[in-house]
Design a protein that fits this description.
Radius of gyration: 19 Å
Helix content: over 70%
Number of strands: 0
Distance between the termini: 53 Å
Oligomer: single chain
Structural class: mainly alpha
Shape: elongated
Largest sheet: none
Length: about 130
Amino acid sequence: MMKLVGWMMVRMVAIRYFAILLGISFFVLSLDVLANAKDIQALRPGDSVILLQYMLYRAPSVLSNYMGISILLAMLLVLTELSYRNEMVAIWAAGVSPLRLVTMLLPLAFVAGGLHFILSDTAIPATTPQLR
């Protein structure tokens, strides 16, 4: 039972986390490209592919910047949805403490932390020279 509740929570948070992270990142990257389009296209006049390349090189740093707020928003959305449907009360009545709920989400925390480390340690240093 507890394992099932844990995987349900992890799945709910993970789906919302990646959706929020990708949505915010795409929005910020689009605004960045629109704001700097003239400067970017001045590097290669007539070549619109450079805008996509700029977005790809800029994506790791934007993803890294918005990972924290995305996990916070995902957790708030899940907890609000579970509270609205009175599922939190049922989970607590089944004997799951709030501390146990937090420990059930540790696999997701390790995945998000590992992804943030990989982006910060390898992807951002690899793409920064191309942006210059």
